[in-house]
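As the next step, I selected for study one protein, both as residues and as discrete backbone shape codes, as given directly below:
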Amino acid sequence: MAEYEFWLTDDTGRRMALLTSLAFASYTRSIIGLGTINIGMPFEPFNRDFKPYFRPDWRVEVWRSPKAATPLRMENIYLLRKPHVYVRDDGMKILQFYGRSGLDLLYRRSVIQEPSTIYTTKTDYADDMMKEIVRQQMLYGSALDEDGVADNARAWPQNEFLVQADGSFGPIITRNIEGKKVIDILKEIRNATFQLNITSSSNRRILFDVVPIDVSNLSTDYDSTFGWEFRTYTDLYGADRTGALEFSQENENISDPSYSINHLEEINTVYVTNGSDAITNTVVMVQDTARAGASRWNRVEEMISASSSGSGTNDQTNAGYAEVYNKRPTEELQLAFLNTPGGNGTPQSLYGIDWDLGDLLRVNFAGRQFNTEVNVVSVGVNDQGVETISGRNEVNAGQ
């Protein structure tokens, strides 16, 4: 049976209480969006010990051990953003907290500098560009105001939010980013690399996340144990396990499988204009030729706008790659990876040991063999400590 610890901390990361006697707890880990937590406990004892009973960005550390004699592993840290007090059917008053993963910090900043400047028109390796954007909008000592002047008022606390060193692994792209939320432009850059990788495997895919890290040897203002670091990942977020365990109904380590491929909303040919305010309206076409040629009728077009100011047509091209990838056919292999210790004739498939978030796994279903990434992990724990775990996934195009 898995073991859990849920620690409540203040906004500096200092522990305030080990949360026990929980009514319920559930959380998600994700490589395609925000991870979340939903945790509930009796209101009265909590309100007696903590006044107020909520402050924005109090945190919950989630620790889990998948089986006996295995050390606890930090699953994630969540920033609490919403309390909810209600009365249960049995008359007990419940305090419910909702929180988000560290990725939420990227939703809280926008690119505020003027267009056609070095801060908003960029050409770089995709992973390095992501990191430069994050540094300039939120890193202490590097954050800038609207004029490009250093402004730590826009920065997260010193030494409690870090940015990984540049790696220069991704394809070189050009983007104009003025006026966009940081998270939105990072997603566009990520999707552009995914489509470029489909075009040529020499273009490496770039993923990103904001992860908890130990900053106890760095923090000077507070006795913080954990802070955050923005990181990029090249090719794969987790580990390639396709040469190991096979997941199939025959191996009894998946449940409720279904497979579909949906072309209903597909776009494979994008015409990108350079904006209505441009003196000369240049149009660039970006196409996934393999998809457009899948049938004599399968060329599906769309027109979007992206600025090319100061960057020729490169930004338009990269915006087109992101859109073509975003509008690809939705190929879904939905199933639950079973969290089981195994037995006679049944291989072990424990979450956190045999499969994990971001791993590439081999699945046999519907007469096909798939290599599929675990994009989201959902975990629930009831008041008896019984857990339910499922992984959601998406088939990689071309595999």
